[in-house]
Specification:
eight-stranded antiparallel beta barrel
Length: about 240
């Protein structure tokens, strides 16, 4: 007799799409070190751009800035105060400008920085006032017009601390504070004129110079010298673009 055929074995189900996914090789999630390495690669790129500023003592400033690496930066800055009127010896105006070359250290590789720079500050002033001559009893000359112009130029050292944030698209915003210290003798120039001009035809001309004009000259020059020797705090808000 023939042996009965063996019982049929049930078909084994093949791997489904869901089960196939269980055996697929999964990519590891990025670690904190991977993220830090990516950030380092991004911030180590050379960046250069233009920054505009507003603050004190310079009301407005414009400059070029660059980051050589994530830890080092440098730049140049031009700041100014447009001519402003002062209640000072009659009609007076004062203007200020400075040119600084600076370097910056970003000790943590982020936006926080320490900076130092060397620059040249210039302060210019003009003055116009009427000098009353009644004390000299000159009927034909009740007053004279006094006009003066002066400037002081000083080599200055700047020290800064601040924060500069650069976005992925290059938009940049920052703030810094510091101090500007004169490090060299001030170069002062001053000139003045009186109208009508003091000539031999004007009575008591020498007395007029000694009593009125001379003291005014000295006081104005002393003020310019004081401005040139004064240490100034600085505070600036900056905005710009760096690529």
């Amino acid at each position: 007799m023939l042996a009965p055929p063996p019982p049929a074995q049930p078909a084994q189900p093949g791997p489904t799409r869901a089960s196939e996914g269980l055996f697929e090789e999964k990519k590891p999630l990025p670690t904190g070190q991977d993220v830090r390495d990516a950030d380092k690669k991004k911030t180590d790129q050379f960046k250069i751009g233009v920054l505009l500023g507003a603050g004190a003592p310079s009301i407005l400033s414009i400059g070029g800035a660059m980051k050589v690496t994530r830890f080092l930066g440098a730049g140049v800055d031009l700041g100014l105060i447009p001519s402003v009127a002062l209640k000072y010896y009659g009609e007076a105006t004062l203007s200020y400008q400075h040119l600084d070359f600076y370097g910056r250290l970003y000790p943590f590789g982020g936006g926080f920085f320490l900076g130092a720079g060397l620059g040249y500050a210039s302060i210019k002033a003009t003055m116009s006032t009427k000098v009353d001559t009644q004390r000299l009893n000159i009927p034909t000359l009740p007053y004279v017009q006094y006009d003066g112009a002066g400037s002081v130029k000083t080599l200055v050292l700047n020290a800064l601390i601040g924060y500069l944030h650069i976005t992925d698209i290059g938009f940049t915003i920052g703030v810094d504070a510091g101090v500007r210290v004169p490090v060299a003798a001030s170069d002062i120039t001053y000139s003045r004129s009186i109208t009508p001009a003091c000539t031999a035809s004007i009575p008591k001309c020498d007395e007029l110079i000694d009593l009125y004009v001379g003291p005014t000259d000295r006081e104005v020059q002393d003020t310019l010298e004081l401005l040139g020797r004064t240490t100034m705090p600085t505070l600036n808000l900056r905005i710009g673009w760096m690529l």
